[in-house]
Amino acid sequence: MSNVSTTKMSSKGQVVIPENIRKQLNLKAGAQFVVVGSKDVVILKNISQPDLSEFDELIANARKKAKEAGIKKSDVKDAILKVRGKIK
After folding, report:
1. pLDDT at position 55, please?
2. Do 21 and 62 share a domain, yes or no?
3. Which CATH number does the domain housing residue 44 bear?
4. SS (H, E, C) the chain
5. Which residue, 30, 37, 58, 62, is the most exposed by fewest CB within 10 angstroms?
């Protein structure tokens, strides 16, 4: 660990991430984290929003698989309506 600091937890369970750590990791207000706890260890893992270009490949792959499976747009629409209880 290249940068170590200490902090305290408030009565509301809030923990301040020290400024030097925030700067090192480029954390901004509103950053979101996954929190993992086990025994006496608490881990915060920063969740960063994926780049929208990553979805282009996923969507292209999903469309390819749907085409290979013979799924049409109307099939998807009907499935959504069925799940929503609008058709049987």
Report:
1. 86
2. no
3. 2.10.260.10
4. CCCCCCCCECCCCCECCCHHHHHHHCCCCCCEEEEEEECCEEEEEEECCCCHHHHHHHHHHHHHHHHHCCCCHHHHHHHHHHHCCCCC
5. 30
Domain range holding 3?
1-48
Q: Name residue 37's amino acid.
A: G
Residue with tokens 């979101």: 32
Q: Which of 55, 35, 54 shows the shortest CA–CA distance to 46?
A: 35
What are the tokens at 45?
């893992």
How many angstroms separate the CA atoms of 8 and 28, rounded?
19
> What does each of the 88 residues of the chain score in pLDDT, given as a tens digit?
568 889 999 999 999 999 999 999 999 999 999 999 999 999 999 998 878 888 888 899 999 999 999 999 899 899 999 899 876 6
